[in-house]
Amino acid sequence: MCPGFESLIRHHPPLFPYSPAASAAPLAYNWDIRACTSITLRTTFGILVLAAATLATAAQAQIRALPEHARPGTMRHEQDMIVQIDGRFAQLAPGAQIRDIENRVVLPVMVPPGSWVKYTVDREGLVDRVWILSPLEAARERGRTRILIVP
After folding, report:
1. Considering only CA atoms, which of 33, 35, 66, 60 is closest in space to residue 140?
2. Are residues 54 and 75 in the same domain?
3. Alpha carbons 5 and 25: distance in angstroms, whole number
4. Are 107 and 88 in a shared domain?
5. For 36-72, how does the pLDDT look when each residue is reduced to its tens digit (9 = 90+)?
6. Does residue 32 sit in the same domain as residue 56?
7. Do 55 and 112 share a structural domain?
């Protein structure tokens, strides 16, 4: 018997049929709590694995919708609210949001130097929203950017 379950076993009859040995003595239950616990744990573990697989599939299928007017570029943080985009200094707007590849809001200092980003600018020319591109999104963006080589 498992410690701590004696009272439960003594005062509550089992939910499954008695074994032949238990039917001879109806007060002495032949109930092994470990068998019941292992079945419950296996069932719970199976449900958790199924839920995790479902959530992982849903997370992989999620695609970020970036605005069409967002400009591509490479970005690095300089200091405070100043960033460098494609070699030019720009100031972040008050309340600017920078989102990483998992769409979480991050601080400007958390932007890896030379990250491929898409950004939008407000009416005053301040950068107000930035999305750090995943490697797949960056490769797709580089494919759109055409470089003209003049001999």
Report:
1. 66
2. no
3. 20
4. yes
5. 555 666 777 778 888 877 776 655 545 778 888 999 9
6. yes
7. no
